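WARN retry 2 of 3 for item q-0093 after timeout on previous attempt; input resubmitted unchanged.
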Amino acid sequence: MAEPALLPAAQMERLAPVSLATPCPRIPRAHIARRCARRRMDLGSSPGPSLGQTNQLPQKSPPRARPAPGAHSRLSPAEGLSMDGFWTEVERIQQRDELREDTGDGGEGRPPEEGETETQWLQDTGLLDLLGGLGLDSHHRGLLSTLTRTQVAAVRRRLDIYTRSARRRHKAPVRDVREIFGAFNSGEISSENGDSGIQWSQLSSRTPESPLAAEPEGPQAQTGREEAFHMDAAYSEQATLLLQRGRQPPGGACAWSEGSLPKFRVPKGRLGLTRIGDLSSQDMRKIPALALIELTALCDVLGLDLKRSKAGKQKATETGLFGVPLEALLEADRRACPSTQVPLLLQALLSCLEKRGMDAEGLLRVPGSQARVKGLEQKLERDFYTGLFSWDEVHHNDASDLLKRFIRELPAPLLTTEYLPAFAVVPTIPDPRQRLQALHLLVLVLPEPNRNTLKALLEFLRKVVAREQSNKMTLWNVSTVMAPNLFLHRGQPPKLPQGREKQLAAGAAEVVQMLVHYQDLLWMVSSFLVAQVRKLNDSSSRRPQLCDGGLKTWLRRIHADKDKAEGGREATPKVAKIQVAWLIKDTLEVPLTPSTKVAHVLRQFTRHLRSSLQAQEGSEDKESLLPRSRLRKSADFFLYEVGGNISEHRLDPDAYLLDLYRANPHGEWVIKQSPT
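OK item q-0093 returned
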């Protein structure tokens, strides 16, 4: 699946819409100041962290790391005093009459009823049918077989909680969790990065030479160097292993307490790295459910309770630009540009700011003219889609106000009503690596429209920070200004215990800071999740065998496939045959050795392509010269893995072909040119 393409600036300047949002009552700045003052006096008595509301768990549970009670913020002294940008932005929102009374129209979540959270969780993870009285079908067997031990424990826990709540409500008897997991254990999954044969349920017995055990310890090893951020093993299993060894996670919190974000690098395994845009939409649809199970398992291990908010009914308009659901806005945009993945209005605003505002001092922080902004909103609603709106007359400060208003006025928060509380609590996790792991999983759980829109926004914010010398907007300045627009939905402060505003402000700014700084890492798909998708696809392909021949036939096929796979490893082909999507009719043959990388294939293809074009120089056949117009640069060509246990996967140039073959012996390799 290709990355969401942003439209050229020229196309943005000829596009607009419908209604303005209703003004809201103003809350005086003095009210915020008094509550902040109370918060300063109460900082020492803040409660321990939780992701949402308290959730009672069964007695049997994996080891947990209890966050420190006061670990709500890890700002440096300088940053701790620089929250004025946050409160100034909140006051500015209020002065523009944008605060709304709580009408329950989709922005504010409501506390879920007993058992409702677990039901929604099982539905989102594709396991809701486990509550029925029927036996396990092949889909559930396939999904459960991909889970690690900590993930299975997370599923058990939600089923147990649901069962107890259902019995308290005197409902009909539900299935006992032992009926589902009694004879079902997590399977053996080959790591996506080439460490084949890892037994997930025995991860705690890994040898000291494993990457997790080899991490350097102590402050000296943590200072001024990049630390490894492993994606080949499930994050919850990594946390469990460290707890069982009685060790603090590598890195600790010392780097964060000094006010600087730790530096992380993702080690490349034999199969390379996978980014969100590298997987087909068919395979990406499986990722959020798997990521949610893993996020829940990680929170269980860390002692955090993941209980999401319940979104209220939305009463938003389905037409226009501001205050329109992302799905409805994209549907309207696609009538003009069918391949749109990011709202056209957002693209136009970002393009306008990049053209004329990147070097302006105080970009995003300095407000525009309220009268001009209101007039621009009306013009945009009327003329954007007709192509009559001119961006040449838009001041960059007015454009930044429109950008923040667009994000803030979405009927549901960009980070979603369900997971906004979880995003806000991420900074309370003491260890920076585990904090980043939780944030990574939350990004993967987001719906695709929200994730694509967030990605476009974060890429722009990184460009703003890169011009810090001229615009004076540091990463922290940008984070404090943007945090209210992402976390105070429609400008409405969440209902918090008295004195918690400063904690919310600091935590929200820290999350935005992490999103901007680590965005390259956050838009990767963890290798263990890709491995789970492969196994899930394998199980799905065996579904007809299970239905037709029953369990015995299915088991015989498993052993036959295993023997065939083992025999195939001994008879590995010496030459890899690569197909080309166009231009060359014959397959490209490449020696398949342990050192052959995807990059070698692409280089050989580029040389072959050049020689083919040179041979056509004297040809008068116009058809033979047509491909030259489609040829751009060699960087536009990618090798894809198609079929077998994956739908389509754009391969990392540093991936090794032999390991790819062993991970997916029934797949094919195809060279394609990236879309323009």
